[in-house]
Amino acid sequence: GADGYQLWLRHRLIEDPTARQQYQRALSFVDAAVQGPTGNSAVRELRSGLTNLLGTAPATSPAKKRSQGIYLGLRQSSSRIRQYLQSNAVEDLGPEGYHLASYQGDVLLIADQEQGLLYGVFDLLRAIQTGEDLTNLQRTERPAYQYRILNHWDNLDGTVERGYAGFSIWNWHQLPEFIDQRYVDYARACASVGINGTVVTNVNANSLVFRADYLEKAAALADVFRPYGIKLYLTARFSSPVELGGLPTADPLDPQVIAWWKSKAAEIYARIPDFGGFVVKANSEGQPGPREYGRSHAEGANVLADALAPHGGIVVWRAFVYTDKAGGDRFREAYDEFTPLDGAFRKNVLLQIKNGPIDFQPREPVSPLFAAMPQTPLLLEFQITKEYLGQGTHLVGMASLYTEVLGTDLAPNQAGGEIREYITGMAGVSNIGTARNWTGNLFGQADWYAFGRLSWGPELPANTIFREWAKLTFGPDPTVVTTVTELLEKSYPACVNYMTPLGLHHIMATGHHYGPGPWIDDLERDDWNPYYYHGATRDSVGFDRKASGSKALAQYPAEFARQFLDPTTCPPEFLLWFHRLPWTFALPNGNSLWQELGLSYQRGVDQVAEMQTLWASLENRVDRERHLHVSQHLAIQAKEARWWRDACLAYFSAVSGLPIPAGVTPPK
Ligand code: GCW
Description:
InterPro entries: A-glucoronidase_C_sf (IPR037054), GH (IPR017853), Glyco_hydro_67_aGlcAse (IPR011395), Glyco_hydro_67_aGlcAse_N (IPR005154), Glyco_hydro_67_C (IPR011099), Glyco_hydro_67_cat (IPR011100), Hex-like_dom2 (IPR029018). The chain is an alpha/beta fold. Helix content is about 35%, strand content about 10%.
């Protein structure tokens, strides 16, 4: 229906009778040779998807000699597939890859392991949903990364940190007996976009999850996820040996602590044989960690890694650390803390780095740490939930941000310097909850979708992802698809303009991070105060990170840093990240910094109005329920874009003593 529950897996009957009949003829049976639970879910998904899309259930084998259909299986599984492979070389597909081909009127789906069949099925269904011609099908797909993981910041009490779509979908109270159908549909949705891991608990962790009764609950979730190729991970609170184990210390070098983690790992694997591993936030924002015992992050991570290694598990150690250093620069801290440890981690430790050096801002330069840990496997962490980008109310197509980051080239004079080349996987902080449509704001679904698709294929352009999602979500009407795509493409630059143009950052109101608060300067820690990040005075604004300032710019590879060094050539979108400049500073387009700031805020407001017009034009093409839902959210966004503009300009104008620039609607 129109309630959004089915996400992009909305397999509605194909309306166009000609297209439907063509697909019916070409896909009249599904000849499946599968054995394991994952292969079985692949076949089940294919059968039900086809039945819904084509209005008739496929047969299990050709009805007549000349009927056409789908053969699906591993290389040796059926004579039809073997026959094809005799004349067509198909490279090694790995554990998750697949090959799709049309062959003498049939469609063949081949994999080396059954998980590949699952991904191939979802690709095939997507192809039909988006009206692809199957007669020339010929593609081999393998995921770019082994690790494609959702991170839920879900607490055991059902609340979700930075969650804007209701409560946690994990009902710990009723597990392990009660298996909500949502768990299954969650796994299907994740698998359909290539996600193969999920961390079901918050990085601000609770050691209770390691208690036997909670492990039994977690095991029940893992059982649901397994047939969809999804591994379960848990967050590990570093002080668990004390809180749960009753030990006097959590010092990672203490023999009893080492033994505690070993036996806890063994206990977990006895229940969850394919357990993924631990995700750890240590010595950050009040979380316990090895530094309390004078040990390094590597010493801490390695003890957990050694406990998991015999079972094949990994430790994902987060690089998001910063302390309250007088005169310090939070931008620098992860780099300063972790680069000396490169090479000191066990093989099964991965370092998870947020895309930017501060914290999921609307636009950040990339974290310098990506290029500085050559001996450590890295995961890139994105927020799918929009903590700093309007949370549950604003429509912002995150694929634009993700693709900008993945494509950022840290080695401009060499091949392969893009961020996507430095990493082994991606983690995305989930935006889902108990809202009927999962994400609260319908367009939030596009961000979950984009994260998954990019974790599989990080070179996909945002435009392709937007178009796909628009078709899958709203159907094939080309006007709708084009308009929704345009709306999504406009939305990200709009948000940056009305919140943080020209490189302003961390100026959201404190705590909840919703709405403007650049004037806030009374918190105990400097680096929590929005004011600290721009330091506006009567004369100037911005954060100097050059050699004359915090020197953070020097953490980047030199050729990459070069573009930011000179304020007259620095890309304007990053200007105030690196420079402190007079309000009168002239930008390349001739405007003063102050004028440009004002005009950017105004542009953001105007862009949201354009988004509203685009959406309004679809009134008779999108069902009433979803049309109203989106219009109402856009109305909030329009009001709040004005709020951002008015509040920020009123404040900066008061500080600088400059009048609101011409061309900007003045605050009331
Ligand atoms: O973005 C900040 C959030 C915290 C979060 C932290 C982190 C889970 O404001 O809520 O804590 O980052 O990533 O650890």
